[in-house]
């Protein structure tokens, strides 16, 4: 659970942003589970902000489709389902593989350098920590995926992929909690290594195929687990 040390010197805008980020993290990690009613009178104490600030933060999460507004009945965490994950995965594959192709075609030496730094930071954690990885892995993983597509000139593509990434992360946390359930073998570190080398070597078609398999892997795990009923 995240708490916010809001003080009198904190601007209202900053308080909204901090509440938004804390709520978003708790939703993505599953601390606020899918479908849960978000009661402002309870959450304002949990996140140490006023009711108005919390409502603004929740409205931002509605824009991200992580929260749903129920008219006069308040807010609720967006539901999760296999069909939703299939849709998120399909869109992510379509947008992210094309963005990666564009980055490989247009990326400068600086892009390759930044990609290498992002990969090495992620690989260091994966080499020295057995799964489940420590909390900082999620941030490093996101930075790596962002670095892969950083040379794509489309701001809209990166914006939508940022939203889709967080929705995919919700399901990734579900998959991590199902570690005891048999599922197709997966070596995430090897997937990242193959993806990095294909991208930095400018092997466009290979990189796109590796990325597609990598993105689809969480869907394969949850589909096999039977966690979500049809």
Automatic annotation (TrEMBL):
Transmembrane segments: none annotated. Keywords: DNA-binding, Transcription, Transcription regulation. GO terms for molecular function: DNA binding; DNA-binding transcription factor activity. PROSITE patterns: HTH_GNTR. It holds the Pfam family FCD. Residues 13-80 form the HTH gntR-type domain. InterPro entries: GntR_C, TF_FadR/GntR_C, Tscrpt_reg_HTH_GntR, WH-like_DNA-bd_sf, WH_DNA-bd_sf. The keyword Transcription regulation applies. This is GntR family transcriptional regulator. It comes from Vitreoscilla filiformis. The lineage of its organism: Bacteria, Pseudomonadati, Pseudomonadota, Betaproteobacteria, Neisseriales.
């Amino acid at each position: 659970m995240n708490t916010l040390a809001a003080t009198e010197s904190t601007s209202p805008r900053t308080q909204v942003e901090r509440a938004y980020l804390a709520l978003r993290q708790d939703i993505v990690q599953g601390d606020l589970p899918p479908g849960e009613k978000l009661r402002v009178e309870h959450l304002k104490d949990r996140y140490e902000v006023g009711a108005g600030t919390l409502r603004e933060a929740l409205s931002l999460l509605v824009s991200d489709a992580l929260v749903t507004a129920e008219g006069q009945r308040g807010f609720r965490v967006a539901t999760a389902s296999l069909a939703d994950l299939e849709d998120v995965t399909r869109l992510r594959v379509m947008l992210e593989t094309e963005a990666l192709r564009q980055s490989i075609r247009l990326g400068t030496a600086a892009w390759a350098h930044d990609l290498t730094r992002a990969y090495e930071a992620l690989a260091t954690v994966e080499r020295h920590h057995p799964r489940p990885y420590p909390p900082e892995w999620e941030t490093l993983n996101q930075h790596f995926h962002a670095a892969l597509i950083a040379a794509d000139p489309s701001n809209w593509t990166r914006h939508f992929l940022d939203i889709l990434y967080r929705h995919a992360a919700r399901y990734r946390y579900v998959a991590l909690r199902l570690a005891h359930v048999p599922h197709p073998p997966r070596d995430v570190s090897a997937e990242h290594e193959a993806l990095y080398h294909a991208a930095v070597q400018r092997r466009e078609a290979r990189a796109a195929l590796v990325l597609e398999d990598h993105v689809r892997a969480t869907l394969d795990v949850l589909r096999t687990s039977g966690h979500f009923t049809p």
